[in-house]
Amino acid sequence: MDLSNQKQSSGDNSFNLQAKAIVFSGISLEQARQIALDVYRANALELKEIAQQTALHRAEVITDKFFSKLLSVNPSCVEASRDPDFQYTLFEAQKSFSRSGDETLGDLLVNLLVRRAEEKGRSLKQLVLNEAVLTIQKLTQEQIDVLTVAFLLRYTRIYKALTPQSFFEFIEKDILPLTLSAPKADSFYHHLVYTGTATVQMTSISLPAIFLAIYGGVFSKGLTQDQVNSIIRDDVSLARFLIPCLRNKDLLQVRFQGLEVLNGSLSNEGLEEDAIAIVRQLHNTGLLSENEVVSEIIESLPSASSLFQLWNNSALKNLVLTSVGIAIGHANAWVRSGHIGNRIVWGHR
Length: 349
Known about the structure:
two-stranded antiparallel sheet; 5% strand
């Protein structure tokens, strides 16, 4: 890779990487790339000539994709290629992609590698990302997608899903495509436990309960002024936490999206526990029931019935992700729905 030559030509199935006027205080991009490929060549399994050529080509492809992505995101992290721990992780990614050549897997590995390169000190996040690179090759795409569904529904809040319509769009565009091939068989989920990406608990949680906890503002039917007065009584200052109802402008609702946001926000405002309880009551009083949530979603989005069937009739409702499962789910969310990445807020269940 000659970084001084800005002319490019390519053939079928090739990958071009080009940079100009980029200066590193440590090693150059070309040196980092060479280190990565030297590590692969020194450690790769002996294969027959044709297989060896294919494997080396694939190793070069994912290496170039990784450095191209790293260059666009954080060029200073090229220095990570000197770190033995990172070299090991990159080599495992090269091996994985060399064996399959699957483009989606390659994109997932690149996403994880870039985030790993940005972790310079030994940290929990570094260990998790290392393990995610090692683990992802043990999973089918359907299993990776299920981890992503659990991640997006149980561990995140999509902050632009603030109205019924935008919430339905989130379900339709970002969730349903990931569930099309998901089996209901217990063995499918037991393998996730085996890989260390999830646990299957005895207790379960209903899908509408999750929606009400995280997106309660979307599913508020509203309160009349009389209902509000009967709840807040003399503490009229609490009315500042109300807004016109999203479904009926003549009614009111609490302005916080869900209970988890509400509890954190009210605590930060220094409210006494009694006042917090009143606002919480206002929020809960206006909510649709779980059955009403299911009916409304299916009425507005008939294809969502398959999501509820999958959730109710499989171990997905019992699935709790490990840190490695969360890392893989997050990476796949970026790859499958890149636009969603900047709409994620972490910190649920």
